[in-house]
Amino acid sequence: MGDRFSLAGRKALVTGGARGIGASIAEALANSGADVVIGDIAEDLGRETAGKLSQGGAKVGFVKLDVTDEAQWENVVASVISQIGGYDILVNNAGAEVTALISDIDPVTVRRMFDINNVGMLLGIKHAFRAMRPGGPAGNGGAIVNISSVSANIVFPGIAAYSGTKSAVDRITRVAAAEAGKLGYGIRVNCVYPGLIATEMGVQLAQDVVRLGLFPDVDTALGTVVALTPLGRLAEVEEVADAVTFLASNGSKFVTGVGLPVDGGMGS
Fold it and tell me: Would you say the pTM of this structure is higher than 0.85?
């Protein structure tokens, strides 16, 4: 793809990188030349994923991270800079999904989801700004990519609260980009909207909407998503990872404050 899309010499933290989309993003960044640290609450799996990616010659580390805990963010940023000698890419991928009818919403569960998907992301941006801006411990600017969802752009039953969190990701992204630009941080902030992927979370969503009586079976639920998608299939983790890599690279150096759909046209 040329040097503009190379991440050689770049230093990245990927939250929720132990499995699924996050692991694919970590792999794509590493394959493009970046040194990567995976942050995740799943310590054993995170270390295993980092070890597998390191076998290909990439420098990939792991740090335990609960994105809702600010003290952990402070320690993790310092650890990333120590482990890989810098910090100029953050991918806010860690997230949770709760499927429920509005008439059955559990406020405790929903608050926890907002805490992970929105407060956790805000804390990530906060500490990336402080580290990457002029005078910070990394101090060379960088790129932040937040993971939203096609659910921010469509109407689908059973995911009102989840859709709300992912719509918030979009708004937070745009405000963060505006602040970073106005204040001269040298940091770009963008997000991507993945379509439904057959990851553990995606399959669980299909099972949940069946359980709620919204669809007769999983095949029908998934078929409905495919029918709403102009390209006629589900998304794949590698496609999301490629979009993130682009937004982290100099190939998008004049792109900030945008959301990039990777949904096969479903949200159009």
Answer: yes
